[in-house]
Amino acid sequence: MRSDKIFIVMMKQMILIIFLTQIILFAPCFGKYSSPSPNNGNAEIFINKAWEQYKNKDYRNSKDSFLKALKIEPNNADILSGIGYCYYSENMFKKANEYFVRANSISQNKNTLIMIGYCNEHLGRYPAAADVFKKAYDIDPPGSLNILLELGNIYTWHIKDPKKTRKILNMISKYGAKDINTYKSLLSFYWFGLNDYENAEYYYNKTFLACSEQLQKKPDDISALFGLGELYMNYMNKYRDYDKAAVQFNKILEIDVENITAYAYLGSLLTIKAAASSGYSRKLFLDQINMAMDKYNKALEIDPFNAKANEDICNVYAAHKTFRGKAIECIKRMQKNKIDDYYIIRAYTIVLFEEISKYLLFISFGLLMFFRCFAFKSDKFKYVASFSIYTWLFIVFINFYSGFFVSIGELLYIAHINIF
Question: Whose C-alpha in 28, 80, 98, 417 is 20 to 30 A from the C-alpha of 257?
């Protein structure tokens, strides 16, 4: 059961990160400068410099250049979007969202709306994200299959509304798309969103065939290798094979030694194996967790502030009480970099509450014993003693039921993003 929870959290993140990469890589294309302002010449110098810095992943200096341009032209939507991309690439989603919203209020743009949707997803505001994606879809329905796929992900993984998932599937069917990513998305909607295993198997076979055919044409096609790896790892119990999945991800690393997503998938595989072995071999469990951490750390060597790798580490540590101290260290490192991501803050809240609950358990037991002793001598304390018993039993219960902390974590996170 624990391995399923870990897998679902990681799968949500993987689907999102693959789709987001397409937008981030082409972000400079969206920022082509065109302003009728008389200050155009002065601002353009800073804008061109900013996009050059952005392409080199120098997000901090890129942001400074955009801000200098913004002082010259404070109502320029392209400049505001550029600042939003910089904050987004630094994983500061709340600030990014503010600038994208400002840009969209000046000039509504499909790509800006898509980025507002992604920011809301990262912040855990799923209904708001869905509403924004719908607005982006309405601007250009024929060219918005990718938006429908993202809406399907939200309804399947986050809002968990089968009716809306089915509606999205009906809309997607009109496009007749036959690429690997579309097949994979349809598979996940039927498998996880609707529990429709017959259609899920149909799209499993479609995806497998599409990946195999692509690899025959181009053996080093990373998208097809990821597709096969995900099929072996995530879907259809009768076909699931973690060793074959690992082979695909290792092939990707032979082609691209700095592929962070491949390292993260290998870490996920080892984590699932560790969870499965935790009940009968502590040594094997610890060995596999350490190997998983090695994969995640290799990803962090490539990009120390990569939100995806850090999210996975936080979730792995948070899921196993043995590593709670390391989870807090990892989360504090990400907080230092002002990461707004939902999963990191939720993991932090879960860990924090579970740590506090340990102390509450001992304190409540001590109070129970104290009042129980007095209750034998006087009826005056019998109600207090009874209350102490129920309090202690409640704290024992929540210590063994992590879902309680997940719910509290989500509630506190929602309060956090709406108040601060």
Answer: 28
The DSSP symbol for 108 reads -
| Pair 277, 288: CB distance under 8 Å | yes
Return all residues near 282 (Cβ < 8 A) that are at least 6 apart: none
Q: Could you identify the residue written with the tokens 């796929």?
A: 149
Q: Where are the domains of the chain?
A: 351-419
List pLDDT tens digits, range 33-50: 444 444 455 889 999 999
Rounded to 5°, angle at Cα 116 from 115 and 118: 60
Please say whether the beta carbons of 82 and 50 come within 8 A: yes
Alpha helices in 26-109 (DSSP H): 27-30, 40-55, 59-72, 77-89, 93-106
Cα–Cα nearest to 161, from 130, 139, 138, 184: 130
273 touches 246 (CB < 8 A): no
Dihedral, CA atoms, 146, 181, 200, 231, nearest 10 degrees? -150
- Please tell me which of 205-219, 370-384, 385-399 the model is most confident about, judged by mean pLDDT: 205-219
Contacts for 329-336 with beta carbons within 8 Å, 24 or more apart? Answer: 334/305, 334/307, 334/310
- Which SS3 state, helix, strand or coil, does residue 73 take? coil
Give the model confidence (pLDDT) of 225-244 as tens digits: 999 999 999 888 888 999 99
18-to-150, 167, 216, 229, 296 alpha-carbon distances in Å:
11, 23, 23, 14, 17
- Give Cα separations from 128 to 117, 158, 203, 251 (angstroms): 7, 12, 30, 39
